[in-house]
Amino acid sequence: MPSKRRIIIVRWDANLQISKGDEIEITRGIGGSNTGSIRASVMKNITTGREERSRIEGILMTQMPTDINPPVKGTVQSIRASSGATEFELIEGVGVLEVNLTKLIKEIEPCIDKEIVERCIHKEDVEDVVTSGFRILEERIRTKIGAGLSSHGVDLVTEAFNPSNGKLVFGKTQPEQEGLFHLFRGAFMLFRNPPSHRFIEEYTEFEVFEIVALVNLLLSILDKCQTRKT
Known about the structure:
alpha+beta, 5-stranded mixed barrel, two-stranded antiparallel sheet, 8 strands
C-alpha cells in the first residue's frame, strides 16, 4: 500500500548524530521540498528529541537561511558523511510508523488472503484499496450464498447474515449471530460505502491498512460460516 513520496537531498554543514530511520523536522535552511534539496540550518530529530543548529546560522553568506514554513518532515534514508558535513536522503511526509508498516506488510503477507494481497496491498490510491477489498468480500459472499449480481452492499449482507433467516450461520448462540450480522453490516456502511460515493481523506495510510486487515478477518469468518439448515 505504498504512496508516492518525494525524496529530498539534505545537506548539513556540520557533524551530525543521525541514523537511518530517524524522523526529522527541518525548520530553517536554504532551498525547500519544491527544489528537491535543502541546505538545512535548524532541525529537530523527533526520534531522539535533539534540536540541531548548523554552522551556517549566523554566518554572512550570499544566500542566507530562512524559515521553512511549513517545516519539512520525513524519515532519513541513506546517509553520506564527510569531514565537517553530512548529506542524507529524506523521504518527505513519511513517519517512522509508515516505514515500519512497509516492513510489517512484507512479514505478514503469507497470512493475508492472496486476492487481498494482489488487489489491495500494493495499490497506491486509498479509495481503490478500500473499494477493492470490499468488492472481493462482496463477491465471496455472493458466491457462498448463490446470490445474483443484483444483490450487493447492505442488502447482500442482510440476505447472508440476518440472524433470523439469513442463509449463513456462524456462532452457537443468537447473540453471536446478531453480532456477526452487525459486524458485517457496520463494516459495509462505515468503510465500504463512503469511498464508493466520494473521495475520502480522513484515513491515514496505517488506518487504510487496518481497514484492509478487517476485510481479511471478515473473509476468514466467511470461510467458517455454515449454510443455515432449513
